[in-house]
Amino acid sequence: MALSNKAKTSRVRIGIVGVGNMGSSHANTLLQNKISRAELTAVADISPQALEHFPGVKHFSSFTEMAKSGLVDAVIIATPHYDHTTIGSQALKAGFHVLVEKPISVHKGDCQKLIAAHKNRKQVFAAMFNQRTDPHFIKLRSLIRTGQLGKIQRINWIITDWFRTETYYASGGWRATWAGEGGGVLLNQCPHNLDLYQWLFGMPDRVRAFCHLGKYHNIEVEDEVTAYMEYNNGATGVLITTTGEAPGTNRLEVAGEWGRVVIEDGNIRFTRNIESAISYNRTSQQRYTPPDTWQISIPAHGTGGQHGEIIQNFVDSILDGIPLIAPAKEGLHSVELANAMLYSSLKGETITLPLKSAEYEKTLKKLIATSKPKKKKVVQGLASDFTRPSHLVNMI
What we know:
The protein is α/β, with parallel strands linked by helices. The chain has 2 domains: 2-131 and 306-327, NAD(P)-binding Rossmann-like Domain (Rossmann fold), CATH 3.40.50.720; 135-302 and 334-370, Dihydrodipicolinate Reductase, domain 2 (2-Layer Sandwich). The protein is 32% helix and 22% strand. It has 13 helices and 15 strands. The chain has a 9-stranded mixed beta sheet. Strands 3-2-1-4-5-6 form a 6-stranded parallel beta sheet, sandwiched between helices.
């Protein structure tokens, strides 16, 4: 029904489910006419107070009510994480186009259930991986795909500028709990980085991680992670992240046979070898001297269109059939990486991918059943924290 409605119009009527921090941001983007050929026609939330911020559109207390209204062709799902699977599946089965916030689900098994609900390929099913619009990562992906780096040997990503305070974690009772989010920094802040990691380098074959639970905050989930990844072709990767370090660092370093690329402070620096380090290693008569290099500064300005570009791409895909920047099915990979890191740390061993989703889901259910999180005072009316201290824009 929703698809046939859409076919008769040149505009997409969008409903947003969940108007907390992210949902309200998307709603305001639409209300400010920043997305062409789209209009916000409905919002749904269990909180009447949250709905009061949007007096010009129809209010609903649930997605089910919204779905029956006939007022929307597409939905943006910005609820707490576990609801992404249930509401997303309902929306897809009801015939709506769907854009789901990250992570698309909490664990791999739920991702598979959600993706399986997308049976009608005429429906557009996208994920909010807005960092894919950042020109720095687009440039790096091009360097990799065109072979200018050659064989990737080592990846090192330090992402410690995700600083969050106790006040942040008190802003919602569902935050930083196994039952509410299914994890901490890996499931809330880092899905974008994990998505970029696999988008750029592909999925590793083995993961060994060390996740510290509540190291810097009064929470039950991880707020510091160090993960080591291996590929069957010999490449390795290290990812370090935390919400408890200030000042933080955001530095991605990629070493390949033709040189090293560093993305940091909004710059891309390519130290390019005159010849392949692999062949030079095998043929050079020198004992200590590495190959000569060129220093290349690669231009990449700004942060890209971010959330607005993903929503516009979603609308354009619905009306024009253009390819999605972030198909929702690709959201499985970042969740699988997060799950594998947590599972590795909990078991104290290396995890081979693909992850056995049923085993991890069983472990997660035990954490939910046996955990005893301390009660937190939910702070109402806090100003939304929509900025980051780097060129990488993210809103959580």
